[in-house]
Structure to design on (420 residues):
């Protein structure tokens, strides 16, 4: 619609935010006990103004303390700390989202947002199982507070403003088994198991939080449910093995030992799928719970083989680098309305019908859009539903083709390095 009346002119946001921090730390040792204490000062200024009033800067003081000691041959560390980070800068300014000509949805920014904060508790123990072999176990719990969420401006839920209201919790553990490189080889295995959840406040939350008991007439406030965060990867595992052959290993060929000082490494990565939210085809209604679906798991195996060389005074090497050796199709995304990479026939037909309805004009032979295979009666003119709709269906399939849905395929590189 043209600007004027209820349609406001275009606007722009101007702001110059600034972020600063200062950290001071001190350490005290007494026998086998070491205490490390510190404090971090964080400051954030949105650098904008609202109603001709310059917004005030926010500041936060975050203390941290850690205690480490030796118990029965194991090193034990416990720490607790407070952390603060400024909100994402995009939440400070106004923005329109979705198809504004269809819904008119508008998101109001809030230059007066405060810090998102967390309190982190962590305990770790490291023990040397045998010579060159160590095991580390780490447990952590992060309590999130003041996460940015949305709140309705008035009774119209399509208009909302950002506030610091949501809370969350991240709990998990990490296990690391490591063997230092001895006798030409070493390895490291690390596994992380965690659960990351938080509340999700939205424009409709005020209607969910309050209810009336039909018997007693009392006001009931339902418990706030927590949902998986976008980075809630429940399990991640990484294993690395590397080795190097001695300088005199392998057979000699014309005075050269091709396998001498040959180095190699292999990395295996596995990760469970990240969560996502199912929606309908238009994207404005949820299907199921928030982040109630998960992508498939992913794993890759990478290999690297390197043979050092000497070019006079210069060094170098020949190498073979193979990524995703098993050529695994790691799925990174899905269509939210189907939960699969491909669109359904219903989606394809809906897109084709909409395109045909908007452009039912015939296509003459002289047009670059003419296709001989679609001309069923061979009259040099593509017209009617029977000839045009299959073209729109084919175009819809091309448009809905899953691109950038899968991770990189197998990649093998062979090259040479020269170090100057």
């Amino acid at each position: 619609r043209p600007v004027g009346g209820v349609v406001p002119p275009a606007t722009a946001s101007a702001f110059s935010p600034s972020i600063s921090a200062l950290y001071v730390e001190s350490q005290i040792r007494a026998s086998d006990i070491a205490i490390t204490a510190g404090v971090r000062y964080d400051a954030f200024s949105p650098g904008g103004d609202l109603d001709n009033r310059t917004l005030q800067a926010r500041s936060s003081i975050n203390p941290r303390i850690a205690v480490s000691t030796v118990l029965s041959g194991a090193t034990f560390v416990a720490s607790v700390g407070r952390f603060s980070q400024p909100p994402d800068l995009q939440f400070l300014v106004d923005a329109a989202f979705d198809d504004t000509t269809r819904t008119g949805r508008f998101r109001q920014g809030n230059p007066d947002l405060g810090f998102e904060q967390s309190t982190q508790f962590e305990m770790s123990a490291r023990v040397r199982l045998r010579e060159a072999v160590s095991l580390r176990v780490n447990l952590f719990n992060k309590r999130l507070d003041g996460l940015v969420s949305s709140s309705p401006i008035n009774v119209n839920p399509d208009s909302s403003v950002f506030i610091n209201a949501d809370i969350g919790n991240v709990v998990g553990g990490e296990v690391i088994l490591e063997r230092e490189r001895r006798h030409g080889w070493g390895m490291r295995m690390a596994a992380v198991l965690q659960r990351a959840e938080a509340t999700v406040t939205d424009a409709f939350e005020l209607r969910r939080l309050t209810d009336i008991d039909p018997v007693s007439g009392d006001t009931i406030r339902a418990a706030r449910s927590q949902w998986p965060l976008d980075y809630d990867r429940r399990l991640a595992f990484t294993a690395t093995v590397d080795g190097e052959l001695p300088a005199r290993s392998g057979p000699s060929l014309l005075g050269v030992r091709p396998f001498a000082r040959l180095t190699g490494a292999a990395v295996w990565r596995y990760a469970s799928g990240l969560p996502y939210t199912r929606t309908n085809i238009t994207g404005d209604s949820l299907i199921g719970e928030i982040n109630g679906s998960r992508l498939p798991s992913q794993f890759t195996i990478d290999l690297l083989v390197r043979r050092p060389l000497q070019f006079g005074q210069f060094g170098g090497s020949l190498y073979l680098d193979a990524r995703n050796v098993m050529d695994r199709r790691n799925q990174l995304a899905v269509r939210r309305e189907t939960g699969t990479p491909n669109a359904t026939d219903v989606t394809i037909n809906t897109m084709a019908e909409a395109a045909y309805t908007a452009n039912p004009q015939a296509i003459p032979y002289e047009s670059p859009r003419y296709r001989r295979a679609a001309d069923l009666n061979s009259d040099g003119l593509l017209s009617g539903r029977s000839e045009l709709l299959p073209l729109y269906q084919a175009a819809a399939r091309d448009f809905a083709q899953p691109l950038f849905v899968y991770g990189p395929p197998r990649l093998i590189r062979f090259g040479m390095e020269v170090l100057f």
Observations:
- The longest strand covers residues 159-182.
